[in-house]
Specification:
The chain folds into five domains: 57 residues, Helix Hairpins; 225 residues, DNA ligase/mRNA capping enzyme (D-amino Acid Aminotransferase, Chain A, domain 1); 77 residues, Nucleic acid-binding proteins (OB fold (Dihydrolipoamide Acetyltransferase, E2P), Beta Barrel), CATH 2.40.50.140; 146 residues, 5' to 3' exonuclease, C-terminal subdomain (DNA polymerase, domain 1, Orthogonal Bundle); 78 residues, 3-Layer(aba) Sandwich (Rossmann fold). The chain is built from 24 helices and 22 strands. The protein binds 2-(butylsulfanyl)adenosine. 2-(butylsulfanyl)adenosine (IVH) binds next to strand 3 and strand 11. 2-(butylsulfanyl)adenosine binds next to strand 3 and strand 11.
Amino acid sequence: MVSSHLTQIKKKIRKLREDITYHEKKYYVDNDPQISDYEFDQLIKKLQSLEKKYPQLITPESPTQRVGEEPLEGFPSVTHRVPMLSLDNCYNSGELREFESRVKKVLSDEDVKYVVELKIDGLGVSVLYRNGNFYQAVTRGDGIRGDDITSNVKTIKSLPLTIPEKKEVEVRGEIFLPFQSFEAINRLKKQNKETLFANPRNAAAGSIRLLDPREVAKRNLDIFLYTIFIEQKELDSQWQNLKVLKKLGFKTNPFSRLCSSIEEVISVYERFRSERENLDYDVDGIVIKVNATYQQKHLGKTSKFPRWAISFKFPARQGTTQVKNIRVQVGRTGALTPVAELKPVKISGITISRATLHNEEEIKRKDIRIGDTVLVERSGDVIPKIVSVMKEKRTGKEKKFEFPSTCPVCHAAAFRPEGEAVSRCTNPSCPAKLKQSLLHFASRRAMNIEGLGESLVEQLLSSGLVKEIPDIYFLKPDELSSLERMGDKSSKNLLQEIIKSRQCGLGRLIFAMGIRHVGERTAHILASHFKSIDRLEKASKEELTSIPDIGPKVAESIVFTFKQPEHIKLLRGLKQAGLRFDYKKEKTGAHNILKEKTFVLTGALENFSREEAIRVIESLGGKVTSSLSSKTDYLLVGESPGSKLSKAKELGTSILSEEEFLSLINK
Ligand code: IVH
């Protein structure tokens, strides 16, 4: 009895750890969060409380036992001299008072002052100055190691390049993108028919990872600093930290306050909460820091957080607006999803014009009608949702929404199985399904075919150039460049991307096929278990469920899918197109001739634009970084090289002319 209870707990803990690890990677490594910060914090809290109750189940690998995540790829990694810790969160004044009790307990009721700062929703960074000069900038990464983004951070105009202090100085702060710049970037993306950034934080993260510093400079990134370490000098408080930063010429946030009690902190929180709407950058709460350095030291830290600081998050952002219409979208599995089109409303700096309604039941449950005034919520990075209808604002002119019984695109019958919430289009060759399947197939986490976005997919389908997914592998340059907005250069780039995708590996391919219930993680588990598509195709439900993490629902869906004539046809087509379905071969082979080789580029190349060269190197398994280090394998030198050439000579890095590079890749 007791042991079966413990087995249940172990299972729960294992599931939570897996979910957290998955979402941490999405958030910290991929900058592609799948759930809101609040939902994520709830997962962590659940795990922490289970581990507290059953300490015998804590393992060193648990996400609660480490500081963060792996650094990004593409920039040399650097170890932080002092780890960059994260912050514990609280969501109400009760939890904040609990923080105060913990502080007071350790400090035996000493007098405590707190510094309150805004919590800027951006990217943590550490910047090093040597001999008064800007020397290096590193991302937070996993808190222990981060990426060297020196050349990119140097483009931030508010960050001084020299400071009046000769001792070694490290400053830490938050890089962010003001709303205005964020909107300008998205406007440009929209014009170019590229996928828009979901919010300023993602846009800042995307910008700081661009490989070309000149592009970064155009993005108008900004930075607020909040911590300073000066060699052989200890400052005696956080308040003094802020003052010294300001004195040395750093940008600090003007809203910081020194408070004498937790009650004062709470009233500052309320003031900042309303102030937040007037700011031209995104903040997600306040940070409360015990002011005195000796008290901070006495309080110490856990493996992840300082015990002397906490963040107090602002509530999810809400606003009211009107439902103009309800439209039904068709997904790649044929699922019909209703979406509310809203009168555009600005919620903390972001214009919201659509909200998901999930399914027919949700519309009924909330009694949402066209014309209704509704309360909309933006929480973190997820699609906005309608919280409730303000029924007192009804005029009688609102219209109930009739959920369609046929597909709005191909007009085939829609079918909703008993007990399920979602109705689906029953036509296997519905053009909307094909469009969504192709978009999913090409998406970043699947085959990663950059440039194959919505408008191009629409053109490919309507022109008849693509009738099924494998057709993209037979596209010809002149066919592509005949399409609207597709010059020779963009069709060449796209073809390179398509060619590259042939080598992307079994896990991505399984995910790209869009089998119901097979997400990215499951696809990679299947790839590493079966090692080939033929073995997966033949797998029985029993064999599938014997794999840890594969449940009966997933297994059933896989077996079912591989029996469907359309799926069999898709597989055959992809094989004919020369895609590799073998797991082992992913790691070797001629296409990987630059595997693990790191390149830095300098000067103008004759045969390639910078982007083309990067794409070629990456498609052959290599990496391109922006700055030289001892880890760089090759410096590729074009016409009028910069200072990198002399640095490479100093470091002894192999130097390649364009001609040598061409002969290397054509080997
Ligand atoms: S202090 C040991 N102050 O929030 C103290 N962090 O969720 C660590 N952040 O990693 C950080 N504004 O990137 C601090 N005023 C502020 C902040 C701030 C934003 C970020 C920072 C940190 C994250 C933790």
